[in-house]
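Incident log, structure service

09:12 report received: a user says their structure output differs between two submissions of the same chain.
09:20 pulled the input from the user's history:
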Amino acid sequence: MITDPISDMLTRLRNASAVHKTEVAVPYSNVKWAIAKILAAEGFVKKADVVGEGIGRSIVLTLAYEDGEPRLRSLRRVSTPGSRVYRKATELPRVLSGFGFAIVSTSSGIMTNKEARSRRLGGEVICEIF
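09:34 re-ran on a clean worker, output below:
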């Protein structure tokens, strides 16, 4: 039994990029799908697809590489089930001086820290990526 499915997804991505895999599959959930769409929009994965039907659905992520090196350099889980981290819009983290980004769960959905700051929304900081 997995107690933190988002952390499991991030670990699968981290491990797959470390061994230069082209694809990684994770079990489907709406939160993980929202994170996958953000990763695809930011260029850290080439594409994200939902495969299967019903309970057997999964998300297949195709990893992006530049000159043989993975675009995903670091994934760090910030808010965990045992320690939730909430920030106001003015206190959202700036990851690697703006070269990275954080994924934030707000009242208007899951988005990057840059978008949340521009919309003046705070929320739970899920993870940091660069």
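09:41 both user submissions now match this output. Likely a transient worker issue. Closing.
09:42 reviewer note: The two ends are 29 Å apart (CA to CA). Strands lie at 23-27, 45-51, 58-63, 65-66, 69-70, 75-77, 86-87, 101-106, 109-112, 123-129.
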